[in-house]
Amino acid sequence: MQDSQLVDPFGRRITYLRLSVTDRCDFRCTYCMSEDMVFAPRAQILTLEELYAVADAFISLGVRRIRVTGGEPLVRKGLPSLLARLGAREELEDLAITTNGSQLHSMATTLREAGVKRLNISLDSLKPERFAEFTRRDKLDQVLDGIEAARQAGFKRIKINSVIQKGRNDDEVADLVAFAVARGLDISFIEEMPLGSVSSHQREITFCSSEEVRERIEQRYQLVRSNHATGGPSRYWQVAGSETQVGFISPHSNNFCGSCNRVRVTAEGKLVLCLGDEGALDLKSLIRRHPGDSERLRDALMTALQLKPEKHHFRTNEQVQVVRFMSMTGG
After folding, report:
1. Residue 33 in contact with residue 327, Cβ under 8 Å?
2. Pair type for strands 186-190 and 245-249
3. What's the order of all strands across the beta sheet hosting 65-69?
4. Would you say residue 122 has pLDDT above 60?
């Protein structure tokens, strides 16, 4: 298969697109957005046709993996039609979704039939009161039902994503692994990223490194190095005696920028070249000024890649390096 034509100044080929379809969400996770979020007017959000045009341009340039994100992507009306078009693209090796799981109880089968191969489901606590504190919504049972519905729908891989914070949910690390092992799921533990200003906690105090998380897991389970890869930034270990892969996403303690193969497009059509950088290219204006001009769009993408920075500069102190919230960027 032809190599990607999207090459940055550091020789990294871009083969992975994270495509946000909405900035809206039915949760208000404390590390992701504020309680009183102001969402973009609908006219500023890319239409389903525009989202497909962006994806099509990336695919034609060699992108082989697309992850649909939000906000919460499953609240986007008409999403299955977009997924079905993407799922029909033979060039794509992987079509995945990151979701909070709240809508999976009714949508899992539809997503599978549309061609989605993998799901990442956010789950930071198995305790109802704590879950409600993290998400500002009392919907743990709904998410657990959604996870079970996804299992029954027959997805190739289902992975739990957990953001671990010291003194808030680090005591649940082993229990979350046990939850995954019992259901044949994978799980990734994520160091919180300093995106947007939060008031619920002090990131400098609650930061919990991947090494600390792994030490907690190894108090109960044996972990074996794994070659498992999904095209994302996780470094994987396998729980001995099970099929469960445990991933660690470590933007602070184990920088993964050297092998970065991805870019993001926000729901408003901004091409974000690096999660830790404010710079972005406005694809929406280009698409709406020149509808149907796929060659112009491809040229813009290739030119923009020359501005991709070598690495991010995340820090764990109180200074916010990137003003936008994760929900605005795409998970």
Report:
1. yes
2. parallel
3. 223-225, 235-239, 245-249, 186-190, 157-163, 118-122, 94-99, 65-69, 16-20, 262-265, 270-272, 280-282
4. yes
Taking the alpha carbons of 143, 148, 149, 154 in that order, is the dihedral positive or negative?
positive
User: What pLDDT was estimated at residue 141?
Assistant: 98
104 Cβ partners below 8 Å, 6+ apart?
74, 111, 119, 121, 143, 145, 146, 147, 149, 150
* CB contact at 8 A, 116 and 108: no
Are the beta carbons of 273 and 308 closer than 8 angstroms? yes
Hey, what are 295's tokens?
């060659």
Overall size of the chain counted in residues:
331
**Burial profile 141-155: b = 16 or more Cβ within 10 angstroms, e = fewer:** ebbbbbbebbbebeb
Residues 6+ positions from 218 with CB-CB distance below 8 Å: none
69-105 pLDDT tens trace: 999 999 999 999 999 999 999 999 999 999 999 999 9
